[in-house]
Amino acid sequence: MKSSTRRTFLAGLATAAATPLLTRLSHADTAGRPLPVPPVMETHGEPVTLDAISGSSIFQPGLSTPTLGFSQPYLGPTLRFRRGTLARVNVRNRLNTPITSHWHGLHVPAILDGGPQLQILPERQWSVEMPIDQPAATLWYHSHVHGRTAEQVYQGLAGMIIVDDPSAPDSGLPVDYGVDDLPLIIQDRAFREDGAFHYANRGPARMIGFRGDTILVNGAIRPVAAPPTGLVRLRLLNGSNSRTYLLRFSDERGFHQVASDGGLLPKPVPLTSIQLAPAERAEILVDFSDGRRVTMLSGPDHNNPMGRNMPAMMRQMLGGDPAQFPEGKPGEFEILSFEPHGKPRAAGKIPDAFPGAPRPQFGDPARTRELVLNMHADGRGPGMPRGGQPSVGQMGSMGINDNPFSMDRVDIAMNRGETELWTIRAAEMKHPFHVHGTSFQVLHNGRRDVAFDSTGLKDIVLVEGEARILVRCNHVATPDIPYMFHCHILEHEDAGMMGQFTVA
Ligand SMILES: [Cu+2]
User: Fold this and answer.
1) CA 60 / ligand 1 centre spacing (Å)
2) Domain stops at, among 164, 192, 215
3) Cβ neighbours, 10 Å, residue 161
4) CATH number, domain at 211?
5) How far away, in angstroms, is 276 Cα from ligand 1 center?
6) Beta-bridge mates of residue 281
7) DSSP secondary-structure letter at 228?
């Protein structure tokens, strides 16, 4: 379909759905900017300050997009925390609406975790001193206001965190941030013709999660990175609301996964593609020593109640699929490209193993629990609030164990330092299940047993029918300010697929 025809078609759809006109971006006029690299904000005992602000960003030539960000118009700086130190962070809210700052993957007491109870009101400041004690890892931070998380993250209230561990033996990996150690925050967005983001958290888009038709990496549309020739470390973060990616390179080159959510894997895992569910992280080592240009592609996202059988037109109506990339297989699209600079040279050495990597140390579980993720928890169905625009308190139509999220109900009471075995069940769709305040081990998912060596420590598991995980928390969470567990499809989380747990 030619772009003009497609635009007319889309405009017709949009009119029918009474939503603003959407624009489908062509490759020629938008993609190809140099990859932006978020600045680093490092704490050395002195506090650092994040300002939640509104601003405007230029994603497309000549069009400005109203956005939110931390200390910059869209997204935020990369926070670097060092194990064994106190991370002191002030978060100031310069917006006219409450926010939070949740440190996703950080092992800190719930009172420091930035969950929905810890709202920062407009013009107020939240100051935390966080003891950093966990393995080196790629984490992230984002707003987590119940009922508003999806929209606030979509607008830009998110950023990367890197935990460094000077006590662990040298991993032998590239460490030159922004050069051969690249943060890549992958997000899908949709745009209106006036340049504003298009977002809808209702109806079918709420049911399966909102999908955009345009890929941003670090806030630029399908940008071009210029790494040095040689081995390069990519810190991949799926910062999308609901899209699951299946990433590979256009020339089929292999790569090695070296870390997952909770830090290094015991040894590098050779792969030719990698799945990244919402909020998941993976660090991969890619060999660019041949100096050739290559593109990272993603396969289509079939995570919806109809799976692969959902017609393309329906997917388009539900928020869109990115345009197919000519180098890809049917349905594939471009994430970003790499144009290595420097003379081709011999490939660098990939470490054999990471002796300092975290090991599973959960022991036998003291108790078991079952959690069923429900897409219909109160009989009203998703996207059907009682009249008008959904607001906090009206969003409870999804749930866990038939309970829509309630801030007044503690769902699970855990004992500090005690391992539990959780069985999580999900029908209709796969759900990226997240637990705050700790990392867990996945034992089983779908029909497969999961080897620790291939996944490491996790804080997200994309539940395929049924998953079993070992969980243990070493920090305190009180009934007033508990931890959360929830689906990380943000539209599902906001619709109530979330619960609270204490640790005493
Ligand atoms: Cu979900």
Assistant:
1) 31
2) 164
3) 22
4) 2.60.40.420
5) 15
6) 237
7) B
